[in-house]
Structure formats: C-alpha cells, structure tokens
Design brief:
Elements: H1 16-29, H2 35-44, H3 48-53, H4 55-59
Length: 65
C-alpha cells in the first residue's frame, strides 16, 4: 500500500471545465497514472451536494485501468 502525497482543491462547481485540467496536471506531476487512484483522489474532495448529483457514477465507476 502506498500513501498518496497529493492534495487536490475542492471541486469548482462554477467552472468544472477548468477544474479537471488542473487536477489532471496534479496527477501527472505526482506520477499518478492509475485510473482507480485518480478516481479515489477526486471522490475524496467532492462535497455531499456534488456526490448526490453523481451518485450513480460513484456507485458504479467504470475503472478499466
């Protein structure tokens, strides 16, 4: 088990089109390539309101890598 030393900002509900490139850059700089790890890092910073909107995706993630 590896500890991830990455701290993502909270989700930018007003501008998700800029948020995702920023977190992708953070993953790249941190050497994170696993889709599962990226998913877990992202889910960990989403608040309850966002989680309710994407509940189906959270319950059934499509993680192929």
């Amino acid at each position: 088990i590896h500890k991830i030393g990455l701290r993502l900002p909270g989700f930018w509900i007003d501008n998700p089109s800029l948020y995702f490139p920023q977190i992708e850059a953070n993953f790249k700089l941190s050497g994170i390539t696993s889709e599962s790890t990226m998913y877990c890092c992202l889910i960990s910073v989403l608040d309850q309101n966002i989680m309710q909107v994407i509940a189906d995706l959270v319950r059934n993630p499509n993680l192929e890598k």
